[in-house]
Amino acid sequence: MVQLLLNGLGGDHRREAAGKTSPLGIECYHVNTRLSKHLEDIGDFRPGKLLLLIGYCLEAIYVRFRHGVRSFYYVPAPGKRSALYRDWLVMFMCRPFFKHVILHWHAAGLAKWLETERQMRTRSFTYRWLKNVDLSIVLSRYNRADAEKLLPRQIRVIGNGIPDPCPDFERSALPRHRARAAARRKLLAGEPLTPADLAQTGGDPRVFRVLFLAHCMREKGLFDAIEAVARANQQLARDASPFHMHLTVAGEFIKETERVEFEERIRQPDLQTPSGEPRARYIGFVSGVAKKQAFGESDCFCFPTYYYAESFGLVVLEAMAFGLPIVTSRWRSLPELFPPGYRGLVGVRAPEEIADRLQAFLLAEAGEAFRETFLSRFTLERHLAALAKAFQSCEGDGAPVSPPVPATLGSR
Asked: Are 229 and 189 in contact (CB under 8 A)?
């Protein structure tokens, strides 16, 4: 998201955007503070990270005086001790030199973590260095608690937005959705399928294809999705249904033990067809064309996360753009992405409930409604315009704000 922000606001004015006019009136001077190479490394302490961080802070201070940058943009930590210490150091070194401080809360849960798991000394240091900033930007109403805890002068709720991953939806994804839904209705009525019925289905409509795409972790809901598909298939078999479900898992495993557990689980009989064919497969990390293909070949997206730092779920926006029905957990900000009463929301660690929702979507209509939600709320253009307006409001004098976009963990 930080890379999308930087590109959308015209790039780094120290480098590729030098001398160019920013499209939204915001000049960015970027200090790339990447400290971790992998998800499991985020928030863990290493001496080398400390030296890197001090160097990044000195670079931000240099940018402040060399380019006259007045506003400091920063992405704070989730509820993790060493990551919070990082924030203390950054604010201690950099905050005194900037007129305005903008915090953009991409992770969630810091406020509750401070109150329930940390001592008074930790809370005191956090308030001292992160309170009373000029602007806190949160991704949802749920996330306001993290910002409010530190008493900012202004809070803005601005949901994420992404580039459209399926710009040819009307031509590619929609005809397939319609054809598969129509074919399943005929099968349920006991009617045979003609070659014309199958022409645009993209595969056997008897197979309801469920996609899980995220970091392959228990907390992201991977094993709940597996159990849900197994239970749904058992129920469909008991009901003599003409359908069965197949799970495709995409993403990187963080723990080798969970990879082994996953491979053993999908070999169990309840995830095999009567002829021994697997009803679950792992396709690894996907991006670009492979990622688009994974979404395009699916009938439903399943993301029952309860990850401790989960705040928004960008993969949910991608699934919406492809018009896929979505089964996801009532976890933090996720319910706010959907209309009131959306039937695809489930409890945390509730595979039986997930299985029920997956079966409810078997005969779902084509995905125009999901696609429309994406276009009306979650495009990158809307996101960038809202951020630019928030940045402009920070100073209050009408002058452009120039955040250097430093200290964004994992930015490239």
From this structure: no
